[in-house]
Write a structure and sequence with these properties.
6-stranded antiparallel sheet; 44% helix; signal
Length: 184
């Protein structure tokens, strides 16, 4: 009899453990997007181009993309963004200002509050930059807004302030690059 009770307890314990594991393995898109942001951030920081490319669909056409990342000869040709060109211009797409500020985004705040903003950074006491990350639950988008200004530029002439918006959209639970735009 004791043996039967022991077997019954073992079976119930195993069943309970398997049920717990199964519940943890379900895909929760509301939490997985923040894990994907962390993966993207780490991949960009470590210059892991292969992992970073999983957040993009190649090729895509966007002359504006090449203007914004300062590759005018490709913008003028309206060249598509290919895996090869992405690899070649990776450091222009994700420059020092982008990486420095992206690393300082508090993903806990982004997840819990829907936004996170960094402090302002400078490398030369003339150019300043920061990043704000936002999650739009209704649109299912994550926007990384890299903003900056240059104190040495004459405000009468303009060109001293900018904002670059890297927009990623959740598609079937996967975070994918949607577009890049610029203001300033």
């Amino acid at each position: 009899m004791k043996r039967h009770i022991l077997y019954l307890c073992l079976i119930l314990s195993a069943h309970s453990a398997m049920a717990t594991m199964a519940s943890h393995n379900t895909t929760d898109t509301t939490s997985s997007w923040i894990d994907q942001i962390r993966t993207l951030r780490d991949a960009i920081y470590h210059r892991d181009k292969e992992t970073t490319k999983t957040f993009f669909s190649f090729p895509f056409n966007s002359a504006e993309f090449w203007y914004i990342v300062d590759v005018p000869h490709l913008a003028e040709k309206e060249a598509p963004v290919t895996e090869k060109s992405f690899d070649l211009y990776f450091d222009k797409i994700f420059d020092k200002a982008f990486i420095t500020s992206f690393l300082k985004i508090k993903t806990k705040d982004l997840y819990e509050k829907g936004s996170s903003k960094t402090a302002e950074f400078t490398d030369d006491q003339a150019a300043f930059y920061s990043m704000e990350a936002t999650f739009d639950k209704e649109e299912q988008t994550v926007t990384l807004q890299l903003s900056g200004y240059n104190k040495k530029v004459d405000p009468e002439i303009g060109g001293g302030e900018y904002a670059i918006f890297y927009v990623f959209k959740l598609k079937s639970g996967k975070l994918k690059f949607d577009k890049i735009t610029m203001a300033g």
